[in-house]
Amino acid sequence: MLIRGTKAVQLAKGIVLIFLVRIVAGFMQLHAVTWIVDQIVSWSVVGIIVIFQPEIRRGLERLGRMPLFGGRGNNAHDESIKFVKELDKAIQYMSKRRIGALITIQKETGLEDYIETGIKLDADVTGELLINIFIPNTPLHDGAVIIDRNHRIAVAAAYLPLSDNKMVPKRLGTRHRAAVGISEVTDAVTIVVSEETGGVTITRNGRFLLDMTRDEYMKYLTSEFVPKKEKNTKWYQKIFNKIWKWGAGR
Predict the structure, then answer these.
(1) TM spans, by residue (predicted)?
(2) What is the reported pLDDT for 2?
(3) Element spanning 200, H or E
(4) Residue 15: per-residue pLDDT
(5) How many whole angstroms separate alpha carbon 25 and alpha carbon 13?
């Protein structure tokens, strides 16, 4: 769900509670309470639109990427390949030099609550930038880098929840527990580079893949983030694109 892992979940619970109060008040003929709740509901529509604005925007973005509207097409394929290559560049550099790193990449679940704990960057993903962030004794090296679903670095030095899963080996440190922790509450993909061994670990959905080789993590990241290349444009996409271009040219 788009609102999972965000403050919007708590708001949704509050809305349900208000409607339950309205139903009970109407049934018991508590006219004063009913009037108050009706006023709250009538004014809350605008408030809901404002509060849920990030989720509404993401929903519209996803609608725009649907095949009917031409999607992101082959550009998305090429951009995603570049994204994975930049990740690989950073992972290889840091792994060889045993530079600890923690990189969380958003999938469907919102990460806004965790993004709020970090230092905003809103930058393109490049291997050089990721390396510089995690260089020891620099201001941003502690904490996690969070990459949003548009494959941009949202923040650095973010705090992630630590897992208390007893299946996590005791030899693993805080970065690994944070990686498992965020994977237990969201569907994000998290990459960890160990500063002790240089080993590469990936976590998702409460599971962790330890000490992956380059071929293994590249295969995993490619399967997660690189869409299949579209061979042919469907007939209805061609018609829609022609109408769109005609309208834009007027």
Answers:
(1) 12-30
(2) 46
(3) strand 200-204
(4) 74
(5) 18
Answer whether 0.90 is exceeded by the pTM. Answer: no
**DSSP secondary structure of 131-187:** HHHHSTTSTT-SSEEEE-TTSEEEEEEE--PPP--TTS-TTS-HHHHHHHHHHHHS-
Sequence-distant (≥ 6) Cβ neighbours of residue 144 within 8 angstroms: 102, 103, 104, 114, 118, 156, 157, 158, 159, 160, 178, 182, 190
- Sequence-separated (6 or more) residues with CB below 8 Å from residue 197: 98, 211
Residues composing the chain: 250
Instruction: Tell me which residue has tokens 């208000």.
Output: 18
Residue type, 12: A
Specify the amino acid at residue 128: E
Q: At what angle do helices 127-134 and 73-96 cross, to 10 degrees?
A: 40
Q: Which CATH class is domain 74-225?
A: alpha beta
Give 163's contacts (C-beta < 8 A, 6+ positions apart): 177, 178, 180, 181, 184
pLDDT per position as a tens digit, 10-55: 667 777 887 788 788 788 888 888 888 777 777 777 777 776 676 6
| Per-residue pLDDT, 38 | 79
Give the domain ranges of the chain. 8-64, 74-225
What local confidence, expressed as pLDDT, does residue 58 receive?
Answer: 65
In terms of DSSP bridges, do strands 152-158 and 101-105 run parallel, antiparallel, or are they unpaired? unpaired
CB atoms within 10 A of CB 90: 25
What tokens does 86 get? 């930049």
